[in-house]
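Entry: Probable glucan endo-1,3-beta-glucosidase eglC
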Amino acid sequence: MRFTNTLAAFAASFSLAQAFTSGFNVAANNPDGSCLTTAQYTTAFQKLQALPQKIKTVRLYASSDCNQLALAVPAAISTGTQILVGVWTEDEAHYTAEKAALQSAIQAHGHSWIYAISVGSEDLYRGDTTASTLAGQVYDVRGMVRQYGVTQPVGHVDTWTAWVNSTNSAVITAVDFLGMDGYPYFQYSSIGDAPSVFWTSVNNTKNVAQGKPVWVTETGWPVSGSNFGAAVPSIGNARKYWREVFCKATSEIDIFWYVYQDYSSNPSFGIFNSAGNAIYDLKSC
Ligand SMILES: *[C@@H]1O[C@H](CO)[C@@H](O)[C@H](O)[C@H]1NC(C)=O
Ligand SMILES: *[C@@H]1O[C@H](CO)[C@@H](O)[C@H](O)[C@H]1NC(C)=O
């Protein structure tokens, strides 16, 4: 039936266009250092869903720190948000506490709220660990969550420069996805060159990914703070970077923007100010 086929083809092309996830990084701490409460996570998730892009996926950096999963998962479930979970890998005691917090959250709430799990964050960039230790932890966490029926991907987040370093290839072999952090700002790029610098870092990471999915787990442009070479923070530049990178990325790659809120940092990448309002216009792309 011709009509049905046309419809199916249309549906397929539509789902292809929708195949990429757009998310946001959400920090566990308020600017005064206190931990976000469940009510604050709920507000954050509702504000992200109210954006024209209807963001329903967030990345958290840790599981036990600030009781992140215990406090955030109820907010995720009540708002229909999914979490890219972070499991901190250092040191041994911290890693054990992180795994225990993830296990407790799964036991209490099942796993429909999990988008994926990242074991570690920029550990290779910092030179805090070796590729073989980190790869072992990826296998370890995957083994643990699979026992609970969790089928979501288990990967690792690091800077694109760490991924393209062949010393770290054991981690690429271990992961289900490569989460890459890339900031043209920290590469001293002008705002004009920033999209090209960004897409070059994505392409370089894809080239070493052994065919595995590459997600952008952090990128953004500061609204305020110090210049970094030719990189100049400003609200106008942040908005330009959003329009030229985020808006294009939504049809090309999974992306987690940096960051929901960080209004007391220098540089400050936060999109939402202390009153909870978007600092610049995030209209549909
Ligand atoms: C790759 O990583 C190794 C181990 O951390 C480091 O010694 C080396 O300098 C890195 N190579 C480059 C090109 O950054
Ligand atoms: C990245 O790769 C894509 C696909 O091969 C290509 O179209 C694009 O021009 C590349 N971007 C840069 C900045 O190299």
